[in-house]
Design brief:
The protein is mostly helical and 129 residues long. The longest helix is centred in the first third of the chain and has 26 residues.
């Protein structure tokens, strides 16, 4: 949940880099919230998932900008511009490219978007039990 809240705190921050964990945890929580809201929409308003209910639509609108921002920061982490998200407009092939880029390991060295966030958080340091 901390990763989800971190993305929401950086609501429209298109600068810097985002780790894979930050991106994928945001996606996971986003999907779970969307499913719950879809069920509530169906139970209260009778909307099925194909039409979209008011709660789901409001939530989608609320997280649109943070979703684009964290996607751009994730692409920055692998050394690509955030504009590469537009490749997803290409049906199927574009989606595959973007998903592969989102899953690609980060670049350990600093790039034009900043230091490696994993190194900044100390995540590379060994864990001693």
């Amino acid at each position: 949940m901390q990763w989800y809240l971190k993305v929401l705190r950086q609501y429209a921050d298109f600068t810097g880099r985002a780790r894979r964990t930050e991106f994928w945890m945001f996606v996971l929580v986003n999907v779970l919230i969307s499913i719950v809201l879809g069920l509530i929409d169906y139970a209260i308003f009778g909307y099925n998932s194909g039409r979209g209910g008011p709660l789901g639509l409001l939530y989608s609108l609320a997280v649109l900008l943070p979703s684009i921002a964290v996607s751009a920061r994730r692409l920055h982490d692998i050394g690509r511009s955030g504009w590469w998200q537009l490749v997803a407009i290409i049906p199927i092939i574009g989606w595959i490219f973007v998903i592969v880029w989102y899953a690609t390991p980060d670049r350990a060295e600093p790039n034009r978007w900043g230091q490696n966030p994993k190194a900044e958080s100390g995540a590379d340091s060994p864990v001693i039990y």
